Amino acid sequence: MTRTAPRVLGIAGLLAGLVVVMLVSVAVGARPIPLGTVVDQILHPDRTPEGIVVHDLRIPRTLLGVMVGAALGVAGTLMQALTRNPLADPGLLGVNAGAAAAVVLAMVVLGTTAPAAYVWFALLGALAALLLVHALGARGHGVGTPARLALAGMAVSAALAALVAAMILLRPTVFDQFREWELGSLSGRGQGIAATVAPFVGVGLLVAVALGRPLNAIALGEETGRALGAHIGRIRAAGALAVALLCGAATAAAGPIGFIGLVVPHMARVICGPDQRWILAYAVVLAPTLLLGADVIGRVVDRPGEVQVGVVTALLGAPAFIALVRRRRLVRL
Amino acid sequence: MTGRRTIRAGGERLSAPLHVRSALVCAGLVAVALAVGLASIATGDFSLTPDEIVDALLGRGAAGTSFIVWDLRLPRLLVGLLVGGALGAAGAIFQSLTRNPLGSPDIIGFTWGAAAAAVLAIIVTGGGQLATAGGALAGGTLTAAAVYLLALRGGDSGYRLILVGIGISAMLAALTALLIARAQLGSAQAARAWLAGTLDGRGWEYALPLGAALVVLAPLVAALVPRLAVIELGEDAARGLGVDVQRSRLAMLAVAVALTAVATAATGPIAFVALAAPQLARRLTRLSGPNVVAAALMGATLLVSGDLLSQRLFGSGQLPVGVTTGALGAVYLIWLLQRRWR
Fold first, then answer.
1. Which of A257, B90, B245, B330 is least crowded, fewest Cβ atoms below 10 Å from its Cβ?
2. DSSP secondary structure of A179-203
3. Which residue of A has its CA nearest to B310?
């Protein structure tokens, strides 16, 4: 109990940070808007040019960033806890590859260019990849050990990457669309994409919250967890569903964005210790902060153009991650 | 220890353990690689009979046949065999060094370093052989050195090497994607094709430098592999047996990086061979330890089979071999994992 107070304080501080980053994200862009005007517009909306930029462009983009960030951060946390593997992330276990392959398939077969139509494909692709990895890694006796799952994920990712490469190399027009999409960006994804994927993210987050306590039991090891009364199979299935919902929705909305899911759980563990419930709570706040911060940086460095947020997260997340790896003794899960 | 024999020559002075199953697997792989090689020389837009091939190889064939065999299909086959072998051996060394089945050059960050530099070269210079290969060599080697130095802290744990490699790879992959998205569609497609890894148009100008580099590297591999097997017993045990663990590791890493570098410079990063070949070889030979020879043969077989398949299924020049090896290797690995774990 004595450790709860600092943790609550910490999360309050991070929340304040998130609000600041959100305001900055509304203010910064090709047409900078003073923070005072931003607050004014949020309290008293009108249709001045500033008002249109704030309400039609910046706020939807910021909210999309919060949602995608939270989804990726929580998905990464769930995967690392479920597989007890510090390397687990939506990329490594093939979930992003599944979503991407499904989106490319939609581009090739249906010729669809409307991002709203990608959502279902991305979700199905993410879920299919996850189920395939799970079926491979968790079959038979001695249910899915971390090494098995990771190896299965690697194999499935490679197969899907080959599929994507084949499709885009054989179809130049799809390649032209895909090379933009594969960067991962919060802009230009079409109106209403946030509303389309929000329900999926919501359900995924709810399942994740419910999994907090069972994940702590799993963290002690499968045998101990089972002895403590945890239904390992059920927890894994629920976790997989949540991960597929979160990653599929995030990838559909913003394209593949790396590193948030890998870095955030490590950062959260460093701050708040090994309790999965707290790690999940910290991830929900930390991940959107990082994603929006990266998006803001991407908008600032290359004015009036912008560097896509997926590139920025990788360029900034990777050194932070390497520093983490070097500074601490490697976290064993 | 069933299935192991010791071969001796000159009394007790020269002896080596021989694993019978492993030797049989290696022989089988050589046979498959030869058969596939023959098939890929014989088939294509112009089919050749075995007699015509033999005549052409002996220099007695018609001019057209000689051209097809000597200038088009043979060097391509050789590049495929050498690149596959180099990738398989490098993968086995990396996986043994990191003691992790995922410890392939793709993950250590090498591949993306080579890719980013080569894509830059393709987009800036238009993609000559020298610029692309030079970029791949320089980028890959620099990246590998950076990863090693960043991971080197209080002893280089294999796990930290992989983690640092993942970080560096992600950065470079993002940069590469950015370069591709900003480039003209034409150079972007050239870059993308190179990224997939291809044997198209690989003549003697590729095969000869590659062969020369591997002739230099092969003895180094042969000399270092026994130490690798000792290090796998554990660092303390290795030290007790008189192996300088840190220095041996660095040497092995350098050799593996060099193997991957020359392979990547020749064809672009061919997916999955370095990851899958050692795993497949290990499961076939059922032998623990580095298994470098079997992995190299497996890599060569995988690559030429993949090339034959992508040429026959999609027509020559349509689908780069890297795409096919990715699919082929992945499906095999999935099948093997599934069978083993049932």
1. B245
2. HHHTT--SSSS-TTHHHHHHHHHHH
3. A166
Buried b (16+ CB within 10 A) or exposed e, A247-274: bbbbbbbbbbbbbbbbbbbbbbbebbee
CB contact under 8 A, A158 and B193: no
pLDDT at A205: 94
- pLDDT-derived band at B1, boundaries 50, 70, 90: very low
As a whole number of angstroms, the distance between CA B69 and CA B72 comes to: 6
Name residue B194's amino acid.
W
Count of CB contacts below 8 A, A vs B?
Answer: 150
Three-state DSSP at B14 gives strand
Of A150, A159, A321, the CB nearest to B327: A159
Phi, psi at B46, each rounded to 5°: -120, 115
The pTM of this model reads: 0.74
C-alpha span between B164 and A42 (Å, rounded): 43
What is the residue whose two structure tokens read 């890929």? B40
Cα separation of B336 and A142, whole Å? 17
CA B83/CA A211 separation, integer angstroms? 47
Contacts of B108 in chain A (CB under 8 A): none
DSSP-H helix ranges across chain A: 4-27, 35-43, 49-52, 59-83, 95-109, 115-137, 146-170, 172-181, 193-219, 222-227, 232-254, 260-272, 276-301, 309-327
Please compute, for residue B305, the number of CA atoms within 13 A of its CA located in the half-sphere on the CB side. 22
Closest alpha carbon within chain A to B319: A166
DSSP string computed for B147-161: HHHHH-SSS--HHHH
Residues A97 and A165: beta-carbon distance below 8 Å:
no
Would you say the C-alpha torsion B116, B122, B128, B129 has a positive or negative sign? positive
CA-wise closest residue to B199 among B274, B277, B117, B306: B306
> What span, in angstroms and rounded, lies between the C-alpha atoms of A203 and A245?
8
User: Is B334 in contact with A326 (Cβ distance < 8 A)?
Assistant: no
Q: Distance (Å) from the C-alpha of residue B205 to the closest C-alpha of chain A?
A: 26
Q: Indicate if ipTM > 0.95.
A: no
Residue by residue, DSSP assigns B46-108 as: S---HHHHHHHHTT-S-HHHHIIIIIIIHHHHHHHHHHHHHHHHHHHHHHHHHTSTT--HHHH
Q: Which residue has the higher pLDDT, A149 or B326?
A: B326
Q: A169 vs B196: CB contact, 8 Å cut-off?
A: yes
**Residue whose token pair is 């046949």:** B65
Indicate the SS3 state at residue A232: helix
Task: For residue range B65-122, list pLDDT tens digits in order.
Answer: 888 888 888 999 999 999 999 999 999 998 888 777 767 776 666 778 888 888 888 8
Window B:225-264, CB contacts with A under 8 Å: none
Structure tokens at A207: 């399942």
Residues of B in contact with A330 (CB under 8 A): 157, 159-160, 163
Rounded distance between C-alpha atoms, residue A90 and residue A126, angstroms = 9
